[in-house]
Automatic annotation (TrEMBL):
UniProt-recorded name of the protein: Glucohydrolase
GO BP term, pick one: oligosaccharide catabolic process
Gene Ontology MF terms in the entry: alpha-amylase activity
Stored Pfam families: Alpha-amylase (PF00128)
Family: Belongs to the glycosyl hydrolase 13 family.
Lineage, top ranks: Bacteria, Bacillati, Actinomycetota, Actinomycetes, Propionibacteriales
Domain Glycosyl hydrolase family 13 catalytic span(s) in chain numbering: 14-428
Top-rank taxon, per record: Bacteria
Entry keyword set: Glycosidase, Hydrolase
Keyword Mitochondrion: no
C-alpha cells in the first residue's frame, strides 16, 4: 500500500453510532459500544471508519445539528471515551474519519444563540439573515410553514420553507435543512477560521480525516426574491466553493504531518464539478460522494417518496460514467448509508437475500473508487418494514409525511408506500449482533425498533462462517488489498444495454479482472452475452460451484456473481 495515497486502496466502514451498539442500556448506541465491537471490523478487514456525528447535539437530526464541535454528546459518551476509541482503533491499524458538519450548526450552538440576541450581536453575521420580501404580507403560521413573505421561495430539504422567522429582529434566517440547523455564513472569514481551528483541534486528538457533510452547499449563490425550488439544488457548488476548499486545505490538511482522507458529500454535484473538487493537482479534497446513482429511482420532480423502478442499464451506465472521475480525481463507491434504504431491499430481492446483497456489493466493489460499507450491509440487513408512521423517527420522513398527508391531503396509504420504500429510518434500525433480545444491541428499549428478522440475520451466525454475507464482504476487503487492478485498473462496461447482465472488465499491466453478475431472480443464459466469458481463475463467487457442471458453465444462477482473473 502506498502510504501517501492509502485511501485509494482502502475500504471504509461507516458507523452510525446511535444504531451501532449500546453499552449502557439507555437504548441508544454509544462510543463504548463501538470500542466493544472493534474486532468485528478487524475480522471484516476494513482500513478505516467513518463515524457519523457523535458531537454534542440536541438531536433535531440525530447529531447532524451540532451545538458544540469540541465535545461529545453525553448520550454517546465523553471526550475521554473518544480518545480511547481513537487509541483502540489505531492499535488495530484502523483509521478514524470524523463527520464534519459545517454547512450549518444547531440552533442551540453558542454562536447562533448569540446571533439571536439581535442585529448587533457579535455572531449575527456568522449566519445568513434576510428581510421579509418587500411588498408581501405575512400571515401567522406554525413552525415549518410558509408565512407568505419569505425572502424567496427556497424549499428546505425536510419540506417547508428554507427560511425561519425570527420575531425579535423581524428577519428570517436560512436553513437548508431543519429550522434547528441554521446555515453558517462562509463569506465571513471568522466563520472559516473557527472551522479550521476546530478541525486542527481534532487532528491533534489523532483523527485521520473528515467526511464533510453537504460541503458543496457552503458557498451561497447570489439570489433574488423570485428564486424558488429546493435550496439544496440552488446552493450546490456556489461561486466560492473551490476557494473555500483550497483555503481549508492550506490551513488544515496541508499542515498535518500524516496523510489524511477527505471525502466531500455533494448532492447534485456534476461530474465536472467533482473532477475539480477531487483533482489531484488542485489540493481541495481527495474524493466525493455523488448522488446520481441513488436518485435513479426517484419519481417525478425528483420526489424520492414517489419512486419508480430502477432500470439496471441506467445504473450500469451511471457507475461507468462516474468511474471516469478516477482518471484525474477520485470517486467513492456506495450503495447505502444512513440516508438511503438498505440496497438489498431496494434493488435486490429479499427472497434471494444473501445472493442479491452479495451480487450488488461485488459489482459496486468492482468499480474504480474507494468502497464504503454501511454498518449492517456486511450482514445483509434489510429495510425496517415498519407498518405505521408512528414507528418512524426521522425528521425528513416525518416532515414529508406532515406536508403530504396533513397539509396537501394526499392518500395516506399511497404516501406510506413511498415512506416504506425510501425512508432514511430503513437503514437506521439497530445493528443485529445476535438472535437474542433486541439483537444484542441494547439491554434497554431501543430508540428505533429492532428488525424482527434478527432471529435469522445477525453477526453471530455469520462471522467466521464460510459462505456468509459477512465472509463475502471480508473477501471483498481482502481482494482490494491483494489486487492492484481493483484500485488502478482501467474499466470497460460490456453489454451495457442488457437489462439483467452486469459485466465490468478491469485491466492493469496484463492482468484482467472480469466481474460478471446476473442481477435478477431468474437464471441467465450466457449465450445472451456478446462474447464468451473468459477462462481464468475465479477469485470471488457467491454460489457453491458445481465442478465441471455443464449448466453452471453456460448460465448464471439467480443473482450469481463471479470475478474471474486472467
Ligand atoms: O445529507 C444530505 C442530503 O442531501 C441527503 O442525503 C439528505 O438525507 C436528504 O435526504 C436529501 O434527499 C447529509 C446527512 O448525511 C444527513 O443525514 C443530514 O440530515 C443532512 O446532511 C443535514 O446535515
Amino acid at each position: 500500500q502506498d502510504e501517501t495515497q492509502w485511501w485509494r486502496s482502502a475500504v471504509v466502514y461507516q458507523i452510525y453510532p446511535r444504531s451501532f451498539a449500546d453499552s449502557n442500556g439507555d437504548g441508544v448506541g454509544d462510543l463504548q459500544g463501538v470500542i466493544d465491537h472493534l474486532d468485528h471490523l478487524v475480522a471484516l478487514g476494513v482500513d478505516a471508519v467513518w463515524l457519523s456525528p457523535a458531537y454534542r447535539s440536541p438531536m433535531a437530526d440525530n447529531g447532524y445539528d451540532i451545538s458544540d464541535y469540541q465535545d461529545i454528546d453525553p448520550i454517546f459518551g465523553d471526550l475521554a471515551t473518544m480518545d480511547r476509541l481513537i487509541a483502540e482503533m489505531h492499535a488495530r491499524g484502523l483509521r478514524l474519519v470524523m463527520d464534519l458538519v459545517v454547512n450549518h450548526t444547531s440552533d442551540q450552538h453558542a454562536w447562533f444563540r448569540d446571533a439571536l440576541t439581535g442585529p448587533d450581536a457579535e455572531h449575527r453575521d456568522w449566519y445568513i439573515w434576510a428581510d421579509p420580501r418587500p411588498g408581501a404580507t405575512a400571515h401567522d403560521a406554525g413552525p415549518g410553514q410558509w408565512r407568505g413573505d419569505e425572502p424567496n421561495g427556497w424549499v428546505s430539504a425536510f419540506s417547508g420553507p428554507a427560511w425561519a422567522w425570527d420575531e425579535a429582529s423581524g428577519q428570517y434566517y436560512l436553513h437548508i435543512f431543519a429550522p434547528g440547523q441554521p446555515d453558517l455564513n462562509w463569506e465571513n472569514p471568522k466563520v472559516r477560521q473557527a472551522v479550521y481551528t476546530m478541525m486542527n483541534w481534532w487532528l491533534d486528538r489523532g483523527v485521520d480525516g473528515f467526511r464533510m457533510d453537504v460541503i458543496n452547499l457552503i458557498s451561497k449563490p447570489a439570489w433574488g426574491p423570485d428564486d424558488a425550488g429546493p435550496a439544496i439544488n440552488a446552493c450546490s457548488v456556489g461561486p466560492r466553493l473551490h476557494d473555500f476548499l483550497a483555503e481549508m486545505n492550506r490551513e488544515v490538511m496541508a499542515t498535518s504531518d500524516k496523510v489524511l482522507m477527505t471525502v466531500g458529500e455533494m448532492p447534485s454535484v456534476t461530474l465536472d464539478e467533482a473532477a475539480d473538487v477531487s483533482g489531484r493537482d488542485r489540493h481541495e479534497l481527495n474524493m466525493v460522494f455523488q448522488f446520481e446513482h441513488v436518485w435513479l429511482d426517484n419519481g417525478p420532480d425528483g420526489d424520492k417518496y414517489r419512486p419508480v423502478p430502477l432500470r439496471l442499464a441506467d445504473m450500469k451506465a451511471n457507475m461507468a460514467r462516474w468511474a471516469g472521475l478516477c482518471e484525474t480525481g477520485w470517486n467513492s463507491l456506495y450503495l447505502g448509508n444512513h440516508d438511503q434504504p438498505r440496497f438489498v431491499s431496494r434493488w435486490g430481492d429479499e427472497a434471494h437475500r444473501e445472493l442479491s446483497s452479495t451480487a450488488w456489493a461485488a459489482m459496486l466493489h468492482a468499480h474504480p473508487g474507494t468502497p464504503f460499507i454501511y454498518q449492517g450491509d456486511e450482514l445483509g440487513m434489510t429495510d425496517a418494514h415498519f407498518e405505521s408512521i408512528d414507528q418512524y423517527r426521522d425528521v425528513e420522513t416525518l416532515g414529508y409525511w406532515h406536508r403530504a398527508v396533513d397539509l396537501d391531503g394526499r392518500d395516506p396509504d399511497e404516501v406510506m408506500a413511498g415512506v416504506r420504500y425510501i425512508s432514511r429510518d430503513n437503514a437506521r434500525t439497530p445493528v443485529q449482533w445476535t438472535a437474542g433480545d433486541n439483537a444484542g444491541f441494547t439491554t434497554g428499549t431501543p430508540w428505533l425498533a429492532v428488525n424482527p428478522n434478527h432471529a435469522e440475520i445477525n453477526a453471530q451466525t455469520q462471522v467466521g462462517v464460510a459462505g456468509s454475507v459477512f465472509e463475502f464482504h471480508a473477501a471483498l476487503c481482502r481482494l482490494r488489498h491483494e489486487l492492484p487492478v481493483l484500485t488502478d485498473g482501467s474499466i470497460e462496461l460490456l453489454d451495457a444495454d442488457h437489462p439483467r447482465l452486469w459485466w465490468v472488465r478491469r485491466r492493469l499491466d496484463g492482468v484482467t479482472l472480469d466481474a460478471v453478475a446476473n442481477m435478477s431472480s431468474a437464471p441467465l443464459d450466457l449465450a445472451e452475452a456478446s462474447q464468451p466469458l473468459p477462462e481464468g481463475r475465479v477469485v470471488l463467487s457467491n454460489i457453491v460451484p458445481v465442478a465441471d457442471d455443464e449448466v453452471t458453465a453456460h448460465r448464471l444462477a439467480p443473482w450469481e456473481v463471479r470475478w474471474t482473473l486472467s
